[in-house]
Amino acid sequence: AQSVTQLDSQVPVFEEAPVELRCNYSSSVSVYLFWYVQYPNQGLQLLLKYLSGSTLVKGINGFEAEFNKSQTSFHLRKPSVHISDTAEYFCAVTENFGNEKLTFGTGTRLTIIP
Amino acid sequence: GAGVSQSPSNKVTEKGKDVELRCDPISGHTALYWYRQRLGQGLEFLIYFQGNSAPDKSGLPSDRFSAERTGESVSTLTIQRTQQEDSAVYLCASSLLGRNRIRYEQYFGPGTRLTVT
């Protein structure tokens, strides 16, 4: 069975500062990895995904994430955050072969301090 | 184009009543998923449809929960005899199923907020 851990439930960051949101996963097989963002009162939107190939993936709004197989991590980073980045961020995993469901972490609430 | 839509956006019901939640996937998306998001928690998988069959119902929490899908379009999630612990946001997502079983990203609807009083 697969699982996702987001250790930080809340992360406050000053505007224009860098941020890293941590995600670790557990699976017995190869996985696809995703970061979704949920802005206040809106649905989930895909930020970026890792399917294969380069371990550094770039997404929308200046976010990027790095897949580290040995550490089973997929941390999300942005070099300089803006007020508009205030949202809940979810890491998710699905297995390569046959398993359709996404398993989500519990989310990290990113709050940008002006 | 149009995204995934869900109705109603909000539903308040009394304990013990039945409710139906509707999901309209993106046109042409063969796969459809239901998830539940309880307050302060991540999303929990409920059920997955490929066409109108449901290969994975493993996330349905009890036999009070059921879902159906008409062809490759609308899906309905039904909760019978609702309980207070059913209060949550119910999210629907859809995706394409490509060749060689390649999956594509899931696109989510805005959700239905269910409150059981």
Describe the secondary-structure layout.
The complex is a heterodimer of chains A (114) and B (117).
Chain A: E1 3-5, E2 10-14, E3 19-21, E4 24-26, E5 31-38, E6 44-50, E7 56-58, E8 64-68, E9 73-78, E10 87-95, E11 103-104, E12 108-113
Parallel strand pairs in A: 2-12
Antiparallel strand pairs in A: 1-4, 3-9, 5-6, 5-10, 7-8, 8-9, 10-11, 10-12
Chain B: E1 5-7, E2 10-13, E3 19-24, E4 31-37, E5 43-50, E6 53-56, E7 65-69, E8 75-79, E9 88-95, E10 107-108, E11 112-116
Parallel strand pairs in B: 2-11
Antiparallel strand pairs in B: 1-3, 3-8, 4-5, 4-9, 5-6, 7-8, 9-10, 9-11
Shape of chain B: globular
Oligomer: heterodimer
Strand proportion of chain A: over 45%
Q: What is the β-strand count of chain A?
A: 12
Low-confidence stretches of chain A: none
Instruction: Estimate the helix proportion of chain A, in percent.
Output: under 10%
Distance between the termini of chain A: 41 Å
Q: Biggest β-sheet of chain B, characterized?
A: 7 strands, mixed
Roughly what is the average pLDDT of chain A, rounded to an integer?
A: 91
Structural features, described:
The complex is a heterodimer of chains A (114) and B (117). Chain A is an all-beta fold and 114 residues long. Chain A has strands spanning 3-5, 10-14, 19-21, 24-26, 31-38, 44-50, 56-58, 64-68, 73-78, 87-95, 103-104, 108-113. In chain A, strands 2, 5, 6, 10, 11 and 12 form a six-stranded mixed beta sheet that branches. In chain A, strands 3-9-8-7 form a four-stranded antiparallel beta sheet, with no helix packed on it. Chain A has a two-stranded antiparallel sheet with strand order 1-4. Chain B is an all-beta fold and 117 residues long. Chain B is 0% helix and 49% strand. The mean pLDDT of chain B is 90. The interface between A and B is medium-sized, with 25 and 27 residues.
